[in-house]
Amino acid sequence: MGEEPGGIGEITVSKKLSIVLPCLNEQENVMPMVDALLAVNLQPAYDLEIIFVDDGSSDGTWANICQAAQERGVVKGVR
Q1: Percent of the chain with pLDDT over 90
Q2: What is the 3-class SS of the chain, one letter each residue?
Q3: What percent of the chain has pLDDT over 70?
Q4: CA distance 30 to 26
Q5: Distance (Å) of CA 28 to CA 10, 13, 64, 67
Q6: N or C: less crowded end of the chain, CB within 10 Å?
Q7: pLDDT of 38-64, one tens digit each?
Q8: CA-to-CA distance for 47 and 56, rounded, in angstroms?
Q9: How many Å apart are CA 13 and CA 25, to the nearest integer?
Q10: From the CB of residue 20, how many other CB atoms can be counted at a distance below 10 Å?
Q11: What is the pTM of this model?
Q12: Is 29 left (phi over 0), alpha (psi -120 to 50) or beta?
């Protein structure tokens, strides 16, 4: 008897997971948040997407979002 498809320990289908994070003046928290979310290790079970929504920050939040997007392919930014 073989193990049924989708059984324990077998990942057969990747599902999309989008995490949307509103932020305002959070420049120091962008990369730690990305690192914390990636540490949960949701991939490859999910096609992960982390979306930061910058609501008019006056600090370097947007620059850090852009940097995170360049360094980590799963990060996107919206302004």
Answers
A1: 67
A2: CCCCCCCCCCCCCCEEEEEEEEECCCCCCHHHHHHHHHHCCCCCCEEEEEEEEECCCCCCHHHHHHHHHHHCCCEEEEC
A3: 81
A4: 6
A5: 38, 35, 8, 13
A6: N
A7: 998 776 788 889 999 999 999 999 999
A8: 28
A9: 37
A10: 11
A11: 0.78
A12: alpha
Q: Which residues pair with 47 in a beta bridge?
A: 16
Token reading at 26: 């959070």
Q: What amino acid occupies position 3?
A: E
Rounded alpha-carbon distances, angstroms, from residue 76 to 6, 10, 12, 46, 79: 30, 29, 26, 16, 10
Query: What is d(CA 71, CA 69) in angstroms, rounded to the nearest whole number?
Result: 6
